[in-house]
Specification:
heterodimer, A: alpha+beta, FAD/NAD(P)-binding domain, D-Amino Acid Oxidase, Chain A, domain 2, eight-stranded mixed β-sheet, globular, B: FAD/NAD(P)-binding domain, Arc Repressor Mutant, subunit A, six-stranded mixed β-sheet, 14 helices
């Protein structure tokens, strides 16, 4: 419609907002991306960097696999390197109950066409001799990968800007109003912006926009406690995860070992702070030394966290608003959004421009929170 | 009884402990070092016959007195040497002692963690043989060692002449004392320095001693490079008249003044404000050293003031603790201490102006110079990241994009120089931002967390 400032306004310049802007601009849309701070600063920039395919929510596999293809093509698509490495992902079980869960995950992954390799105790120690003695079983998925989250979102945003996206950092949205069949956004500096389509990808800050249009989701902020060690001779290879979640680690080629571990930590979205409690650092250090005793004398040099949006059923909201045509939500990625980020952006662009996406996204509808909320087993496991 | 913990056993920590003990309190005194004294009043390793009287020169009496007082204090405090505070969470300190993590709760926390050298990089500064000025003094006092046989002193600090004298007295040859601040700048700042005439004259005396010993002393130099293939072989600089000079040497000591070690204050929740004289973000404190309820900061760890100011500010903070505990106040003593601290810190502020941090020289460093030696990041890489579209213009963001300041030392060494490189682009000193502190304050081994069996 003429007279509008822009076709699509995207609120939230994280990974989701940046990819959505990129795909929309590639198809000729005028897009404005509004970010209260700088692009990719929160969960998009501080996460562990796992592009894990094993053990995902079953209903997410079509999206996940579509997304992985985009990651595999990142350099050509975006024109920059994001330290993408197809390291594979090793899932470890420490008792028979965990082994059974691992097997369950593997069957789901395989039903969507992912190649999963089962590794018994003897092979584990032959292939990854630095592993401790106690693991009883493991599965390995070679297509899983890692990337550097700090580099990804700014790179995608730059690619979007080259396609004409107007990126406004350090810009807060003061009000969002319906006007005709579109929207008017009032920015904190008093400027206004009109658009036909509005994408709400504001992460831990997304609820305000949803509630403005009569929708809600029990979203809350939390952060992943993470740390990094000094460089150590390169030997780990895959991204490694104990299935109980106590430790997830990987080694980057320059030698540092990056670790994340549950339980997740409290974050304050208002003060923009997500401090890491030292006791959680110690617990994760202990867990890492148990899984890889060779690292016992390796030194932790830095901890960090950031603000991620969580929902009690541990799956995100992705899809059109059920009250307001032209409004699309994508938030609450529960610490698992990095891998599916590109896919979500692509699907949103299809929903916006084609009215539908070939990728099934029904489980992620915001309407699910109209009835009683399910609390997932994952939720109980990942929080204390 | 309230649990009072003092972190740091230099003159500030010892000064504070004395005041608290005199009131019948028994503070915990945590010392990262193995023997009390801090950096300035460091004691030589045991069984090392080092003539500390000669080494400490005019400060020998104070040195002896501080250690005597500490010995008297020892039975009345809970002294914990060899203990690192690696994190602070609410009212709990996380410690590392004998390779093991432990915790300690506190009601009142006094942080007196001292200072370290501020480094201005130059081409070749990562060559073996380049030391900080403080490091050069520490190996001398602690081990009786010299950093080289022919040593060049470069920087912007009155301590260059002092350290050079200590080195000369211990048998080293001095290649040159080269100060980046023009002589006229120092002369112009002299009136402010008259606030502490004794210190001023001591400084002039060291400079005079260098001249008497025939050491060349240059003012207003521009550093060019430290040269050498595998080790320092020479220091090259341009003198005030623009002539390139080459000084053969086997070691270089760099001293651009000190910067407070504020990481723990940061983790404990102190607020920071930019200080234009020191060109650093410093914790906000009241006149007695309070940073927030229950948190007190003293010594060079909060404001550079030197040993006497450190001791007085430690005592002053201890009086603040007593006042906050509702104990009767010694108003006269408190006022005298506050005046002393103010005067001595004012003198150091004058020194910071007289011996200026060479911000323009740093902002103009060649691209190839290593800025962050932990992560091997060059000045050029930082500039290139900032020049990109959507590029960072704030230090924490620059760190995220380039890894500058992300390594083992957590930006302690490269931080001030990074600040200048970013400020040159951001267009304002304060807008460049402050590298936020993160635990662990120093690296800790996984094994510290306990048995993994």
């Amino acid at each position: 419609m003429s007279g509008r400032t822009t076709d699509v306004a995207i609120v939230g310049g994280g990974l989701i907002g940046a990819w959505t802007a990129f795909f929309l601009a590639r198809r000729g849309q005028r897009v404005t991306l509004i970010e209260k701070g700088v692009v990719g600063a929160q969960s998009s920039g501080v996460n562990f960097g796992n592009l894990r395919l094993q053990g995902r929510f079953p209903g997410q596999y079509p999206l996940s696999l579509r997304s992985q293809a985009l990651w595999e093509d990142f350099d050509a698509l975006i024109g920059e390197d994001c330290e993408f490495e197809q390291t594979g992902h090793l899932y470890l079980a420490y008792d028979e109950e965990e082994h059974a869960r691992l097997e369950g995950y593997a069957k789901v992954s395989e039903s969507y066409g992912l190649a999963i390799e089962r590794v018994g105790p003897a092979d584990l120690r032959r292939r990854w001799p630095w592993l401790g003695e106690r693991a009883v079983a493991a599965t390995f998925s070679a297509r899983d990968a890692t990337a550097n989250p700090r580099l990804v979102t700014p790179a995608v945003a730059r690619a979007a800007a080259r396609l004409g996206v107007d990126i406004r950092e350090n810009t807060r949205v003061a009000a969002v109003d319906r006007s005709g069949d579109g929207f008017t956004l009032t920015l904190a500096d008093g400027a206004t912006l009109s658009c036909g389509t509005l994408v709400n990808s504001a992460g831990a800050w997304a609820l305000e926009i949803a509630e403005r249009f009569g929708e809600t989701a029990p979203v809350f902020p939390a952060g992943p406690p993470q740390f990094v060690t000094e460089p150590f001779p390169y030997l780990i290879g895959p991204s490694v995860q104990a299935i109980d979640g106590s430790v997830i680690f990987r080694q980057i080629p320059r030698g540092n070992i990056i670790l994340a571990g549950y339980p997740r930590t409290a974050a304050d979205a208002q003060a923009n702070r997500a401090p890491v409690p030292p006791l959680k650092t110690l617990a994760a250090m202990k867990a890492l030394a148990r899984v890889a005793p060779i690292l016992a004398q390796c030194h932790v040099i830095r901890v960090w966290s950031g603000i991620e949006a969580y929902l009690p059923d541990m799956i995100p909201v992705i899809g059109p608003s059920e009250t307001t045509p032209g409004l699309f939500h994508a938030f609450g990625f529960c610490g698992h959004g990095f891998q599916i980020g590109p896919g979500v952006g692509l699907c949103l662009s299809e929903m916006i421009l084609d009215g539908a996406t070939p990728t099934p996204l029904e489980p992620f509808a915001i309407g699910r929170f109209r009835s009683a909320t399910t609390v997932s087993e994952k939720f109980r496991k990942e929080f204390d | 009884m309230a649990d009072i913990v003092i972190v740091g056993a230099g003159p500030a920590g010892i000064g504070a402990a004395e005041v608290l003990c005199a009131e019948g309190l028994k503070p915990v005194l945590i010392d990262e070092g193995t023997r009390a004294g801090g950096q300035g009043y460091r004691r030589p390793a045991e069984n090392l016959a080092l003539d500390m009287n000669r080494l400490m020169g005019s400060e020998a009496t104070k040195y002896a007195s501080l250690h005597r007082r500490f010995q008297a204090l020892l039975p009345r405090i809970d002294y914990r040497p060899g203990t690192l505070v690696w994190a602070i969470d609410g009212n709990t300190l996380h410690l590392l002692r004998d390779g093991r993590a432990e915790t300690l709760a506190f009601d009142k926390l006094l942080i007196a963690t001292g200072a370290m050298d501020r480094i201005a990089p130059l081409p070749g500064w990562t060559l073996p043989g380049v030391f900080t000025l403080g490091g050069a003094q520490a190996v001398l006092k602690d081990q009786g060692c010299l950093i080289g046989n022919r040593v060049a002193f470069l920087g912007s600090s009155p301590l260059l002449a002092l350290a050079a004298k200590q080195y000369r007295d211990m048998g080293a040859e001095i290649a040159v004392i080269a100060d980046t601040t023009p002589f006229a700048t120092k002369a112009a700042a002299t009136p402010a320095l008259l606030r502490a005439p004794r210190t001023l004259f001591r400084g002039l005396w060291y400079m005079g001693a260098s001249l008497r010993a025939g050491t060349e002393m240059l003012h207003g130099v521009t550093p060019v490079a430290v040269e050498g293939s595998t080790h320092v072989e020479a220091l090259v600089l341009r003198d005030a008249r623009g002539r390139e000079r080459r000084f053969a040497c086997d070691a270089v000591a760099l001293g651009y003044g000190l910067k407070p070690e504020t990481q723990l204050a940061d983790l404990a929740g102190a607020a920071f404000v930019y200080d234009a004289d020191f060109r650093l973000f410093l914790p906000r404190i009241d006149g007695m050293g309070r940073a927030r309820p229950g948190l007190y900061l003293a010594g060079d760890g909060v404001r550079i003031g030197g040993a006497d100011a450190a001791e007085a500010s430690g005592a002053l903070a201890a009086h603040a603790i007593l006042a906050d505990l509702g104990r009767p106040q010694d108003i006269e003593a408190t006022r005298a201490l506050a005046r002393q601290v103010q005067r001595l810190r004012g003198f150091q502020r004058g020194l910071a102006r007289a011996f200026a941090w060479p911000k323009a020289q740093i902002a103009a460093l060649p691209d190839a110079v290593t800025l962050c030696r932990c992560e091997n990041v060059t000045v050029g890489e930082v500039r290139a990241a900032m020049a990109k579209e959507l590029g960072p213009v704030e230090v924490n963001r620059v760190k995220a994009m380039t890894r500058c300041g992300m390594g083992r030392c957590q930006g302690r060494v490269c931080g001030p120089a990074l600040q200048e490189i970013v400020a040159a682009k951001a267009g304002s000193d304060a807008a460049a931002g402050r590298l936020r502190g993160q635990a662990p304050v120093k690296p800790i081994a996984l094994a510290a967390a306990g048995d993994s069996a």
